TrEMBL record:
This is Tol-Pal system protein TolQ. The gene is tolQ. InterPro entries: ExbB/TolQ_transport, MotA_ExbB_proton_chnl, Tol-Pal_TolQ. It comes from Cognatilysobacter lacus. Keywords: Cell cycle, Cell division, Cell inner membrane, Cell membrane, Membrane, Transmembrane, Transmembrane helix. Residues 121-250 form the MotA/TolQ/ExbB proton channel domain.
């Protein structure tokens, strides 16, 4: 058999696929990169207590100050809420009794008796009617003098009642206005301490070295806002409530003065 026939009878073998050969190393490399990225991803969560306990002493001092301010503001908020609600209920109840047609003498006896100190609108009524009766029992006093004495007594009592309602509102306003700046001071101190400690280090500095100190510093600002927001909200709410009660007290004093004026004219 000739050499040409042997070549025709031989079975041809297919060449290997170059794309398949090249794709396998690429797939292995991609899987290796994904595994490395997953292993390098941070798995720790934010621990606020650790940030507080590991903070520098200036930041910790400012956080302690903000904590005291927050406790004081919440005490004022709870007490003032109870006080203003009670004052509003008392004003509504006394106005209903006053305008129901009850005699002024009986109302005065009820306000000045029972071994207690009247408050709010009842105290305003008691002061005005007491001074009015004191001058009415004197000889030679005219109706104008009686009315002026009643008005002076009601003005003084109204001022005293409003002062008691506004007590500690100034402290609440100061806490709300200064707490963010106090927290900002803590942030500045925290960043300064972090930067100085990093500059003093001879090792190479990365984001892992900077992040804890910056987080501690920013926590002071967050605490300042946490203290200030409830205080500002409560101050605005309480100030509005006090203004409404003041308008209510003044309106009652004017109406009661008109009643006393008519009574003095009738007796004169």
């Amino acid at each position: 058999m000739s050499a040409f026939s042997l070549m025709l009878q031989s079975t041809p073998h297919s060449l290997p696929d170059a794309g398949a050969v090249d794709a396998q190393p690429l797939t292995d490399a991609a899987q290796a990169v994904t595994t490395a990225a997953t292993a390098a991803a941070p798995t720790s969560s934010l621990d606020l207590w650790a940030l507080v306990t590991h903070a520098s002493w200036p930041v910790m001092a400012i956080m302690a100050l903000l904590t005291v301010a927050s406790i004081a503001s919440w005490i004022i908020i709870f007490r003032k809420s109870i006080l203003l609600r009670a004052a509003k209920r008392e004003a509504v109840a006394f106005e209903e009794t006053f305008w129901s047609g009850a005699e002024l003498t009986k109302l005065y006896d009820g306000a000045s008796g029972r071994g207690r100190d009247a408050g709010g609108m009842e105290a305003i009524f008691e002061a005005g009617f007491r001074d009015f009766n004191r001058l009415r029992q004197r000889r030679g006093s005219d109706g104008t003098a009686q009315l002026e004495a009643a008005q002076r007594g009601m003005r003084a009592t109204t001022s005293r009642e409003l002062d008691s309602l506004e007590h500690n509102l100034e402290l609440l306003a100061n806490i709300g206005s200064t707490a963010p700046y106090i927290g900002l001071v803590g942030t500045v101190f925290g960043i300064m301490v972090t930067m100085h400690s990093l500059l003093a280090s001879s090792q190479q500095v990365g984001i892992k070295d900077v992040a804890p100190g910056i987080s501690e510093a920013l926590l002071a600002t967050a605490m300042g806002l946490f203290v200030a927001i409830p205080a500002v909200w409560a101050y605005n709410r309480f100030a509005t409530a006090v203004e409404r009660l003041a308008s209510r007290y003044e309106a009652f004093a004017e109406e009661f003065s008109s009643i006393l004026q008519r009574q003095s004219h009738l007796e004169g």
